[in-house]
Each structure stands twice: as structure tokens, then as C-alpha cells.
Amino acid sequence: xxxxxxxxxxxxxxxxxxxxxxxxxxxxxxxxxxxxxxxxxxxxxxxxxxxxxxxxxxxxxxxxxxxxxxxxxxxxxxx
Length: 79
Hints:
This protein is α+β, with helices and mostly antiparallel strands. The protein is 41% helix and 18% strand. Strands 1-2-3 form a 3-stranded mixed sheet. It is elongated. The protein starts with a helix and ends with a strand.
């Protein structure tokens, strides 16, 4: 699931592009359009920064043990 709310609301793991970065990229595109650049001339930008959120509370309720290596790579861990 791409959005952090998934894990924050009880999902096990959320992984995807940083939502704030996506909104910033959308704003940059809108600025270009408002300045008169033709939409067809604006390059498509892919997300550069991704984040992973692990919900240990959900893992425990499912009887799962999250490996330390996964927890070490997570941007946020919900206890």
C-alpha cells in the first residue's frame, strides 16, 4: 500500500513514495502549466524518495515476528 495511513490505521506494512514529495511534484507541474508551458512539454517525474512503515502492534496481534533487518530499514515503526 502506498500511503502511510494504511499502517497507521492498523495495516501491517506500508511502502511507497513519500506523499509530501508527490504533492510537491504536482505543485511544480501546476506552476509550469500556469506559466504557459504546454502540458505535453512537461516531463513526467518519477518519485525519488520512498518510505516504509511497519506496524509491530499489528504483527504481534497476528502472531508474527518482524525481522530486525526489516525494522532497521523502516522509516517509521509503530509500537
